[in-house]
């Protein structure tokens, strides 16, 4: 895949790609760092982004998935041959007693996806797939509900893949896992100028809470506030 991602033909009226959401592992660290830097540029916050591979390696995988920071990779490509489907069914059986089952969906496209940076975002799990985005979240707790939940720190879909339903699959995967684990809520923040994201979240049924404001201590302010 030199410069574009060629969709797999399904019928005369359109084409489709296979979308996979999987747990990230240590070998994904460089791609995750690249995605975070892209997100920082998109949010006009690149001046505040200090991410490095080594910082991620030392902090992301200290706890089991869903007990600490957890990353899911959103990948596009590959195929769903009978052999692939059989392998997936075996994986699903083996994972039933584990913490997470990969999500695999076939997504119909209205037009092919052109990704000029595909070579830089090849999946470490399957070289036929390209990383289209990621979500990073971690557990929190609601005293009012007396239940745990998830806070989504970052949800990012790369530009060539936006507007195709991939963000919905990614966020719903987090929600599905929260429901499976008996969580009370999933929450996140959105920048007030990101109108498209706000409409997207509202379309999923999320409530925006304008009466709340984020309070943050970081850097020198964090150090000077400590006892």
Give me the secondary-structure topology.
Blueprint lengths: L7 E4 L2 E10 L5 H14 L10 H7 L10 E8 L4 H14 L7 E7 L19 E14 L4 E11 L8 H15 L5 E3 L6 H9 L15 H7 L2
Parallel strand pairs: 6-7
Antiparallel strand pairs: 1-2, 2-3, 2-4, 3-5, 5-6
Helix pairs in contact: 1-2
Keywords: Acyltransferase, Transferase
Pfam family, one: Acetyltransf_1
Protein name: N-acetyltransferase domain-containing protein
Overall SS class: alpha+beta
For the record, the CATH class is: Alpha Beta
Mean pLDDT: 88
CATH superfamily: Gcn5-related N-acetyltransferase (GNAT)
Secondary-structure element pattern, one letter each = EEHHEHEEEHEHH
**What share of the residues lie within helices?**
25-40%
Strand content: 25-35%
Describe the global form: globular
Radius of gyration: 19 Å
What does this protein look like?
InterPro entries: Acyl_CoA_acyltransferase, Diverse_Substrate_AcTransf, GNAT_dom. It comes from Sphagnum jensenii. This protein has one domain (8-225): Aminopeptidase. It is α+β, with helices and mostly antiparallel strands. The protein has 6 helices and 7 strands, in the order ββααβαβββαβαα. It is globular, with a radius of gyration of 19 Å. The chain is 29% helix and 25% strand. The chain starts with 7 loop residues before the first strand and ends with a helix. The model is unreliable at 1-13 and 92-97 (pLDDT under 50). The longest helix is centred in the C-terminal third of the chain and has 15 residues, at 166-180. Strands 1, 2, 3, 4, 5, 6 and 7 form a 7-stranded mixed sheet that branches. The protein has helices spanning 29-42, 53-59, 82-95, 166-180, 195-203, 219-225; strands at 8-11, 14-23, 70-77, 103-109, 129-142, 147-157, 186-188. Helix 1 (29-42) packs across helix 2 (53-59). A hairpin with a 4-residue loop joins strand 5 (129-142) and strand 6 (147-157).
